Amino acid sequence: xxxxxxxxxxxxxxxxxxxxxxxxxxxxxxxxxxxxxxxxxxxxxxxxxxxxxxxxxxxxxxxxxxxxxxxxxxxxxxxxxxxxxxxxxxxxxxxxxxxxxxxxxxxxxxxxxxxxxxxxxxxxxxxxxxxxxxxxxxxxxxxxxxxxxxxxxxxxxxxxxxxxxxxxxxxxxxxxxxxxxxxxxxxxxxxxxxxxxxxxxxxxxxxxxxxxxxxxxxxxxxxxxxxxxxxxxxxxxxxxxxxxxxxx
Length: 248
Ligand SMILES: Nc1ncnc2c1ncn2[C@@H]1O[C@H](COP(=O)(O)OP(=O)(O)O)[C@@H](O)[C@H]1O
Ligand SMILES: [Mg+2]
Description:
The longest helix has 18 residues, at 177-194. Strand 4 (62-67) and strand 5 form a beta hairpin. The chain is globular. By secondary structure, the chain is α/β, with parallel strands linked by helices. It has a domain at 34-58 and 86-230: 3-Layer(aba) Sandwich (Rossmann fold). The protein is built from 7 helices and 10 strands. It has helices at residues 47-54, 77-87, 103-112, 118-131, 147-159, 177-194, 234-242, and strands at residues 5-16, 19-31, 36-40, 62-67, 70-71, 88-92, 165-169, 197-202, 213-218, 221-227. A 6-stranded mixed β-sheet has the order 6-7-8-3-9-10, sandwiched between helices. A 4-stranded antiparallel β-sheet has the order 2-1-4-5. Residues 47-48 line the site of magnesium ion (MG).
């Protein structure tokens, strides 16, 4: 098995006036298909930077990233936009729903970009929202939903187009602890059920318990990696790491 997400010696330096901030300082990671991976670290450690580089939202200062064996670090903006549409779903801490669109319309949005007709995409969106326990809220606007309900809508939006990879940056950061647990259950179940790879960022060690692999980030470096899944053993990952990673 080969990693679906691989990064080699990833560095990101931000310039603030004369100061250089080494947000990521030589990160190597391997994430296997179907894996749930948690990126854990304190505020400012570089978690969001890592996620946005892996998702192709920002370019690394140096280093290599391969998603599905494709060297995304070499892609231009248009190629990255297409790649994300095809393969990646996002869940954000602040939900990022369109305020003037209903729950169902928000969930249907990724299908619009794939050219699915309005009727078909709304039908699919409603079906998914009903599965997520939001039957009564299909036509509500985001401001007519609780935080937990908004995050369920945003998870539905992230998975409706069947992406192989889901990225989530502090998905429960704005939720109370009971709702946060529900959202973690829903998000991880949705990923597992679809065989999708899920990479989520958290500063809460308790949330990392959901993961097959936990990557601890301190000061832009991988400080520790815990592999907890039975199927995905450390040997496989280390072999994959040592294997030559083709660039084509
Ligand atoms: N766009 C940016 N410009 C300058 N510095 C940034 C930028 N984004 C992040 N940083 C800095 O990089 C470091 C890592 O930030 P971040 O990845 O957001 O950490 P985390 O998500 O773990 O809280 C921090 O010191 C932060 O201030
Ligand atoms: Mg962050």
